[in-house]
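Risk register update: the risk that structure generation would not scale has been downgraded. Supporting records follow, first protein first.
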Amino acid sequence: MTRAFKTLDDLGDVTGQRVLVREDLNVPMDDGRVTDDTRLRATLPTVTELADKGAIVLVLAHFGRPKGQRNPEMSLALVVKPYEQVLGRPVRFIDDQGAADAIATMRPGDIGVIENTRFDPGEEANAPATIDRLAALGDIYVNDAFSAAHRAHASTEGLAHRLPAYAGRAMEAELDALDKALGNPEHPVAAVVGGAKVSTKLDVLKHLVAKVDHLIIGGGMANTFLAARGVDVGKSLCEHDLTATADAIMDAADRAGCTVHLPYDVVVAKEFAANPSSLRTCNVHEVAADEMILDIGPAATEALADVLKTCRTLVWNGPLGAFETPPFDTATVTLARTAAALTREGSLVSVAGGGDTVAALNQAGVADRFTFVSTAGGAFLEWMEGRELPGVAALAG
């Protein structure tokens, strides 16, 4: 595959070179403890490879939203100890004030984390003075944070124009997976798009109908599409003011030869609670005025599984039902397990992303059985909308 960006494979001898590595260390913490170290672990391949090759590894990252103000509660010093445990080697904290002097004492193979990039008001503004300050600290720039690539900040975009720029291993894996999913996919391609509201995924849906062969719509947004088709959805979550937009998306799909799949049987209840007494499955045309649709029914789920069996590529964003509350996770879990089984057989390339999606796939126990699961939220969504991501574009030169 010909790539538009350079990777660590294109680096020469980096012994003693100061390598600025943009990572995502914005991890959730509670009382000084990291509650989910997924992002820390994602940095391992790049950081350890560079350190093992003798580079002086200088990790750049943000933590929280300090809005250009120094805030001790958002200092990356808090992350250094947990990061050491994940890396299994020492990590030095480098205050951004006096960073050059501290870096001058580091030796080949050392790893340091520079203070929160967002303490500098010029970071989010992509200010030339901030780019100059950061560029002076390094010889080479590596962007390994796809999750921040939709931001044109000094540490995610500006530096790539000032220093020799490369994609890290996590960034490389993400871009390769996304290329397989929508860039140059093997057809037929299916997309599962779920979630509460059509309004948050409008651009995604408009972009996908021209790219995929099957568009599977679930979650609360499916109710808006059903309403557009004249279905009475009772008291279900539904954006009735967007039914004309839903109609326009379905018309665009027809013109593009994309089949839109909406549920024809659904799981309903009169109250939104775990295993409610009013739970029942019915045809979409039989939803009572006091009922709400909370999941896709078993017949429709089985039909969707049959669709996936005809496809070669799947891109998934969002759950099919109110998956946080059982039994309304059934359709999501069932279809995710079908996708995982097809992936394991080698007949399907499956790429998923977005916060709720990752949680749903973990609930189904299959997150590690998809071809690729992106932990990026906003960046993954913007990629699905077909937007150019500044941090990625900058790597391409």
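Supporting record for the second protein:
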Amino acid sequence: MTLTQLGTFVLVAKLGSVKAAATALGVSEPAVSQALSALRQHLGDPLIERAGPGMRLTAAGSRLLPVASQMVSLGADAAAAVRAGQGAPEQLRLVASSAVVEFVASPLVDTFVEQSGRKIDTSSGVAASDEMPVLVGNRFADVAIGPNLAADRTSELCSEAIFRTYLILVASGSTRPHGPPDQWPWLVDPSATDPASDCGRLLRRLHVPESRTRVFPNQTAAWAAAADGAGVAPAHAHLVAERIRRGELRVVDTPATPLDATWYATALPPERRSTATDAFLHFLHTAAALRVMRKPGAGVPPSKFRPPVYVTLWS
């Protein structure tokens, strides 16, 4: 029985499927299935069983889950202690909504590391809203940037508002969509599949059917298609402002836009955070961080859009 196997079990149990766990970890589904199978064989219990379209824990799996979560968390503490003893750089693992990872994450952590003067290994990856609390709560990630994950009073996580913006709709500067918004062709990034994301909330408010949406690898690709006249694309206003200024895109009015949006930073309680996490959370409230979030620069290429969340789990 290994921490890899226990961590895999925790993610499958809390995210509800092998596919979701594999996506969160940035690994293949067979890798997750293999780790889970090895744990089942070692403990002599299925632990998780299929129940219709979903999964459910066996009696033994229900008893194992809180223990496994604690062991995975202690494993993260042990790894951090060894790294500190060896003089190795601290770790900062960030998960965020797709727009944040595409535009903001890299320049934000680069500025943080540069200003802190500390040796810190950083990584970032995209996570859906329902994945973020599982990843942070079980120490697979240190900080999540996205919706308010501590709105639920039963949550042990702490969320702080770090940036306010709003969502608009853009289209080609030379075309105008006809008919009601739910009949327009919508060009969206992967966050549209997340009901709790800003884009997901906008689609729901305008009652846009799935048949009217096309999902692109990232927001930059969706905006490029919109500029070519293929449809309308949601956008955070400050991220698309330069393209509007150049006349590549123009704002399209709808009954639901502009839609207020707030980015939150979420982490464990102070007593359970690493020093790097504490320093990063403090940095997020500085003028330097605000400047980066306001004008982060160009998006990343699609081939580099989704790095693994926590590759060291599988080493």
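The first strand starts at residue 48 and ends at 51. On this basis the risk owner (M.S.) recommends closing the item.
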